[in-house]
Automatic annotation (TrEMBL):
Record field: catalytic activity: [(1->4)-alpha-D-glucosyl](n) + phosphate = [(1->4)-alpha-D-glucosyl](n-1) + alpha-D-glucose 1-phosphate
Organism listed in the record: Bythopirellula polymerisocia
Ranges of residues in domain DUF3417: 28-132
MF terms in GO: glycogen phosphorylase activity; pyridoxal phosphate binding
Taxonomic classification: Bacteria, Pseudomonadati, Planctomycetota, Planctomycetia, Pirellulales
One Pfam family here: Phosphorylase
Keywords attached to this entry: Allosteric enzyme, Glycosyltransferase, Pyridoxal phosphate, Transferase
Protein name per Swiss-Prot or TrEMBL: Maltodextrin phosphorylase
Record family assignment: Belongs to the glycogen phosphorylase family.
Highest taxon of the lineage: Bacteria
Amino acid sequence: MSQTEIPRSTSKPARDIWTEVTPQAMYDKLVAVSRNLWWSWHPEVVSLFRDLDPVRWRQLDHNPVALLAEMTPDQVAQRASEMVLFTRINQAHRRLRDYMMNTHSTWGAREGGVLGSMPVAYFSAEFGIHESVPIYSGGLGVLSGDHIKSASGLGVPLVAIGLFYDQGYFKQHLDRDGFQNEEYLDTKVENLAMEPAHDKNGKPITISIETLDGELKAKVWLMRVGRVPLYLLDCDVEGNRPEDRELTSRLYGGDVRTRIRQELVLGVGGVKALRALDIHPGVYHLNEGHSGFAPLEVIRERMSEDGMSFDDALRDVAQHTVFTTHTPVPAGHDRFEGKLIEEHLGPLRQKLGISYDQLMGLGRVEPQNEQETFCMTVIGLKLSRRANAVSSLHGYVSRRMWSNLWPWRVEEEVPIGHITNGVHVPSWLAHPMQLLYDRYLGPDWLGNVGDSETWQKVYEIDPGELWETHNALKSRLLEFVRRRVSRQCRRRNEDEAAVEAARTVLDPSALTIGFARRFATYKRADLFLKNLDQFAEMIDDVNHPVQFVFAGKAHPADEPGKKLIQSIANLRKDPRLAGKIVFVEDYDINVGRHLTQGVDVWLNNPRRPLEASGTSGQKVVLNGGLNCSVLDGWWAEAYNGKNGFAIGIGKQHVDTAVGDQRDADDLMRVLRDEVIPLFYDRDVDGLPKQWIGRMTNSIASLAARFSAHRMVMDYVKEAYLVAAGGLSSDMHMP
């Protein structure tokens, strides 16, 4: 496959399944649609698969490949006849075919320039595309998934590189004491929309990486995400040692040696996979430091193929490399001892013709400091000429954090910019809201979600209609929560009274606040516990009731995070809070989708400025919910006083304890004095007119700015075209 060829949806060449109407033809069309994850952000197609068997659809984590594997063509035809699905099947198949063929009239075709012949290679350790594809853990993966989905929608020439984890991230279960337990399950490859990747001669690709400890092999899978091919490396191959065959089994599992070997496969192995695929990128985008070894392999190629010196090759490759840093938290930047670096990169270092000290210097802030470990973020910054943070505030923090890499520059001139994260609108927008927008925003609005003008028509939506749609989504959320919580009670063998209480938990008319994210201590899920008595009194107001839905996982090795979950989950045992605070287990894309589409308020109270961006609150915006957040990450540049609520005024105290208490007090004040009164202030028709006005302001002012379409367009204009040498003019001198 050439670097510009885009994989098409699968079909059987021996027959024209488009014109046939036999059971086998209908079945083949559904299989073809299921094999491209394009279906996952098209609600009409999702509902088509659901209608084949709603019960199994839910049990199989909404996986159409697994669902169709359980059905014969005749069974599909019978169900299609009962549900009158034939026209919908034809339409879904035709839409996918047309989408894949229409590559000439996209934004990327118009604006992508040289990327058409030299695509972007986008590296990430995880991709959160859909809950049925468990190769993600949280925010970074979901951001990567949204990035490539928007690149597909915009028609940006891009290929993605990641790892295939056959056990994915863990399944979370809380015991009776509220403590998190982890369970890893094997994923059946045959139930995923992927296939072996082949080289130009049609042979399955296996790459090998030389280390001082022996050769490390990986096979390459192809997963189609709309127009974007996603290539996943998998170490479960013949020829690897037993421990190496399990190397890519778990995401963020194992010890530090496992981590460096995974990152070696992602970076060096990813570049080797691109070469085997005959893909020659014009840009290498390293999404976080996990893929920081990739430029070293590209440098080696330039030296070998073009006779360049190491220094010249480094300068050339760095010019074509974009690096994105995602966290100001020190623990989020992988560091390795020199012994591990030499063990895994020694053979590559020798081919590069550099010494051990030179290699270590690439990963150190102070190259000559032998006490400093090798940092993946440092090498990412040193081997790129376009580096960015993921929000305006995070850019400021990152420039300060890494200013010692450029000691001759003042902090403001440190070459780290920012491109604020955004979310893929079709993936996170509830279908009822989409139908509402269809009526008011115009027929082509989904193609222009990154244009702020598109969203100004939300002011024309009837307030009652917007409120009714939101309440329908809220009811759907509560049904989902009740189903999940009652199932949790049964699994813990709780008595029938507890199960029955779970079936009716939460009040559809009460103000519903959601909090769902990774349970790291700096995200302060327990901030309200500092004023627990006041909090209990506030939510127990019969005239103005408030209820909370929590979800989230702690890393298996994060004991403080696990205790944080336990403290929240056990609030259900407090008689003052029973039935008003629930914890939904096993946070994933499906849980996140329900919560962000149905809550009234999304709560976010990290310790500023440790939240680099965050995107969950951006998903809430699309669905009419309001954000109540510390002025950190994306919210620091989003809040305008009329589109949500702010905790604090954007300051942090040097004493963490003082800052936490100050924010806890302000959280209570905002809820008591602003959020609750506004929500319950109703007119004669029972509508909270001022609240609805704030919902409208939120959508109109934020939906375009924080869409992944806008984000990807920014990357193309501000980073990719520059790195590929595709600008007609650029007078900026770095």
